[in-house]
Amino acid sequence: MTSVPPVRVRGFGFALPGDPVPLRSRGLGDAERARLDDLGQEFGYLSPMDSTALSIEAAAALANAGTGAGDIGLVITAPALLTAYGPEIPAVAVRAALGLEHAQCLYLGQGCVGVLRGVQLDAQHLRAGETPGDVVVVTGCRASTITRRWNHGSFFWRDGAAAMVLTLEPGPGPRYVDYAEASATADWGAMRVRFGDGHPAGADTGPDDFRITINFDSAADQVAYIRSEHLRFGNVLATLLDNNGITEDDVAALYLPSIGKARIPNLLGAGRPLMERVVCDVRHAHMGGVDNFLFMHEHMAKTPPADGAWPVSMTPAFTAQWAGVLFRYRES
Fold first, then answer.
1. Strand partners, 254
2. How far apart are CA 168 and CA 123, in angstroms?
3. 176: β partners
4. Does residue 200 form part of some domain?
5. Which backbone phi and psi does 26 adopt, to 5 degrees?
């Protein structure tokens, strides 16, 4: 077997604007307050900046990871929801703002999954040696402008951004190992923002056309989706483990986004030992792939993994996909 050079996470950068705002201060109705109790979500951040500006701020914070402007060969931006202004390329904005003269650019429109797919593509780019320097993937989310009182009827969202820089340089930290995804074959478009080029030309628009909506044709379709989501989650996890000859017992931590404290046991199954190794701070409102990077960074800083540990990071994208990345932690 041909060996591949290890791709290491050099560091993270974050943009979490202002102080956390209690979700109960957002003028919620009784039903929404009751849903908060079920979800366990408590607070979020409200940004005056759009998702591209947030992404720039998160990428700029990478200077704390020891990566200079001239060291980046590729910028991938993967917004969790929308771009700030339609058909723009946020990666180009990040490149320009940070003066990354030698960086190539790529924009991924794959929802919350995009940031994990970006990790995979960054690793492939580094191993191929297509450009010198490190690579960076950035995700931004400004859900406050496209949700009503920060929720879309399922869970609550917040604003922010996160960036990860990867390198071929040796050193301690998590190393990229593998990526897997599973896609829906039905109801993949049940969660959407209606306004796009599918909107009839010249038709009037209302406030709901610019907000996240979730619509299934029937209650039976929604039940079928919930069941199939369980299968997609399981398929992604099984693929990562099987491809690399490990089992659930080997997984040191499973990083999941804040999607509600009851949903995670439904995905994993009650009593499953892996539940004890789930890392997810459900107090946060959801912010797409930012959650995964934030929880991973905070957990590893507080509880450094053992040498050789296998962390896994997984997230859904809308009603369309689940995806995951397998890492291997090395002390040197």
1. 278, 312
2. 9
3. 7, 327
4. no
5. -95, 20
Which pLDDT band, with edges at 50, 70 and 90, does 244 fall under? Answer: very high
Task: Tell me the residue range of the domain where 244 lies.
Answer: 177-191+208-330
- Give the count of beta carbons closer than 10 Å to the beta carbon of residue 242: 11
Distance separating the N- and C-terminal Cα atoms of the chain: 23
Residue 123's SS3 state is helix
CATH number of the domain at 269, please.
3.40.47.10
What does DSSP assign to residue 281? Answer: -
Name, in order, each residue with C-beta under 8 angstroms of 60's C-beta and a sequence gap of 6 or more. Answer: 13, 97, 98
Provide the domain count of the chain. Answer: 2
The mean per-residue pLDDT over the stretch 271-299 comes to 95
Which DSSP string corresponds to 224-256?
A: HHHHHHHHHHHHHHHHHHHHTT--GGGEEEEE-
Listed in order, strand segments (DSSP E) in the chain are 7-15, 21-22, 43-44, 72-77, 104-107, 134-142, 159-167, 173-183, 191-193, 212-214, 251-255, 278-279, 310-317, 321-330
Check residue 1 and give its pLDDT.
47
This prediction's pTM: 0.94
Per residue in 116-139, is it b (16+ CB within 10 Å) or e — as a string? Answer: bbbbbbbbebbeeeeeebbbbbbb
Average pLDDT, the chain: 91
Query: Are 187 and 152 within one domain?
Result: no
Overall average pLDDT of the 188-202 stretch? 78
**Do residues 91 and 234 share a domain?**
no
Do 97 and 227 reside in the same domain of the chain? no
